[in-house]
């Protein structure tokens, strides 16, 4: 498995996790909890996008 493949897999995993956090935020009734979950989803989404970019470049992020 190439480095790019590993990053593609990681990006998909992060995307799924971000979606889970988004859905949890939608179900949350407490506004503070909703904000925390939304913020977490956004952070994980950014990580997913970064991993996707690295996968597209086929190189290590360092």
From TrEMBL:
InterPro entries xref list: DUF6381
Name of one Pfam family that matches: DUF6381
Name assigned to this protein: Small hydrophilic protein
Top-level taxonomy: Bacteria, Bacillati, Actinomycetota, Actinomycetes, Kitasatosporales
Location of the region described as Disordered in the Swiss-Prot/TrEMBL record: 22-62
Biased composition (Basic and acidic residues): 22-42
């Amino acid at each position: 498995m190439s480095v790019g493949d590993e990053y593609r897999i990681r990006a998909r995993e992060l995307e799924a996790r971000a979606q889970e956090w988004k859905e949890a935020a939608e179900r949350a009734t407490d506004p503070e909890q909703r904000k925390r979950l939304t913020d977490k989803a956004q952070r994980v989404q950014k990580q997913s996008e970064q991993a996707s970019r690295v996968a597209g470049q086929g190189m290590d992020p360092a």
